[in-house]
């Protein structure tokens, strides 16, 4: 499963300590939830955890819901020294919103039940590229 290199963010330590702005914290928490769901899916895809179709379904549903919250959480132009949000988000909010929609749509397109570990890999990649595209552009 060479494509899983895309998921390299998963074990990353997150530096939230000292973030005081509640709006910044809220959007970071939202992203962290996305990270948690993707980590669950990637450990299953890699066989580090038993495959469970029901858990996969729930994770994808939560990703879709969380993706729908991204524009809401990022709309306030809140700043914090620890934030990794690129200021261009608020110059190009329309495009940023489009990137969030791409994730939401990718999750929505996976509504057919995923019944095997083999089928999980491509699904994960489909989701993961949308995370990466937005991070490449809007996360420092
Ligand atoms: C629409 C753009 C966008 C999409 C889509 C997106 N992210 Fe993010 N993500 C960001 C931005 C911007 C930040 C930096 C936020 C900050 O530090 O204020 C971030 C930060 C993060 C963080 C670090 C949060 C923290 O605690 O500091 C994680 C983890 C993360 N994203 C995971 C994901 C995963 C997993 C996906 C896909 C399932 C995803 N993101 C999709 C824009 C996006």
From TrEMBL:
Keywords: Electron transport, Heme, Iron, Metal-binding, Transport. The keyword Transcription regulation does not apply. It comes from the Bacteria. InterPro entries: Cyt_c/b562, Cyt_c_II, Cyt_c_prime. Transmembrane segments: none annotated. This is Cytochrome c. It comes from Thioclava sediminum.
């Amino acid at each position: 499963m060479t494509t899983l290199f895309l998921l390299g963010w998963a074990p990353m330590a997150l530096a939230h300590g000292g973030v005081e702005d509640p709006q910044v914290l809220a959007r970071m928490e939202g992203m962290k939830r996305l990270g948690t769901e993707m980590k669950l899916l990637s450990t299953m895809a890699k066989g580090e955890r038993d495959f469970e179709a029901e858990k996969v379904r729930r994770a994808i549903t939560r990703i879709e819901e969380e993706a729908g919250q991204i524009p809401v959480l990022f709309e306030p132009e809140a700043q914090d020294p620890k934030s990794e949000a690129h200021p261009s988000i608020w110059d190009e909010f329309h495009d940023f919103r489009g990137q969030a929609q791409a994730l939401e749509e990718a999750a929505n397109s996976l509504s057919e039940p995923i019944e095997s570990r083999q089928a999980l890999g491509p699904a994960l990649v489909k989701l993961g590229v949308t995370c990466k595209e937005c991070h490449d552009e809007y996360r420092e």
